[in-house]
Amino acid sequence: MGFTFSANLYANCSARQVIEALASFYREQGHRALEMWRQLFPAGSIGETLAVHDFPPHWVCVDIHAEPEQLIRERHLFVSAKLECPGFFLFEHDGDYWGYEFFDAGRVVDRFTSNASYGWYFDGMDCRGNVCAIAHELPFLTVGQIEPYLVRLPDWDVVPEEEYERLERQTNVVPREGDRYRRWDECAVLNFLRMLGVDGDFTKRGYFRYGAPVFAEIEHGDFGTNLSIHADDC
């Protein structure tokens, strides 16, 4: 199994504000979320713990699970609308490809996937990525910083195999000087994450760990009926 990663990033707000917005979401949608989990994992455990990391001056990062897909997308759009802030749903799917959904004030602004052959999260949607849209909403980033990461492999069902392999070889370089991974490495999403200003690294056991400590953990195994937040200063 390849590297799997998913997170929400929220810009221009505090960790405390994000925590309060997430709590509001589960107070309103908790029981519906519980039913979604039961349908997806009928024989498994239900619930997750959201770990919130503070990366000033620009980001609050929430470590999430990427399922149920409908739930996580409704959740980050809810938080974004409530806080009137831009942000990302950022993921790497089993080391095969990475992508994002970029949003602002509760509406989707842009989507990107690094390989057009895959449509797991955004099937049938335009996922070419729009550098200017991100730079417009996030003025602390430039087009030159963002653009090297939004290179995309074509759908292998619509281009000849030789052409696909040629493009893959030609573009399989580090996007920018200082990046740790080549463009098609299974951890390539971490190059983009670090460019944004959110760092982390792997432990000796191979687990990815954020560079900032956990600011708070939100446990919602019961989805809103007794939601608890654990933090030293919350």
Ends apart, CA distance between termini:
37 Å
Q: Which term fits the overall shape? A: globular
Question: What fraction of the residues are assigned to beta strands by DSSP?
Answer: 15-25%
Mean pLDDT: 89
User: How large is the radius of gyration?
Assistant: 18 Å
* Low-confidence sequence ranges: none
* Approximate helicity band: 25-40%
Major β-sheet strand ordering: 6-5-4-1-3-2-9-10
Structural class: alpha+beta
Largest sheet: 8 strands, antiparallel
Continuous helix count: 6
Number of strands: 10
Structure in words:
This protein is of the alpha+beta class and 234 residues long. It contains 6 helices and 10 strands, in the order E-H-E-E-H-E-E-E-H-H-H-H-E-E-E-E. Strands 6-5-4-1-3-2-9-10 form an 8-stranded antiparallel β-sheet, sandwiched between helices. A two-stranded antiparallel sheet has the order 7-8. Helix 1 runs antiparallel to helix 2. The radius of gyration is 18 Å and the shape is globular. 32% of the residues are buried. The mean pLDDT is 89.
Summarize this structure briefly.
With 234 residues, the chain is an alpha+beta fold. It has helices at residues 15-40, 69-83, 131-137, 143-146, 161-171, 189-196; strands spanning 5-11, 49-55, 59-63, 86-93, 97-104, 107-113, 200-202, 208-210, 214-219, 228-230.
Topology record:
Layout: E1 5-11, H1 15-40, E2 49-55, E3 59-63, H2 69-83, E4 86-93, E5 97-104, E6 107-113, H3 131-137, H4 143-146, H5 161-171, H6 189-196, E7 200-202, E8 208-210, E9 214-219, E10 228-230
Antiparallel strand pairs: 1-3, 1-4, 2-3, 2-9, 4-5, 5-6, 7-8, 9-10
Helix pairs in contact: 1-2
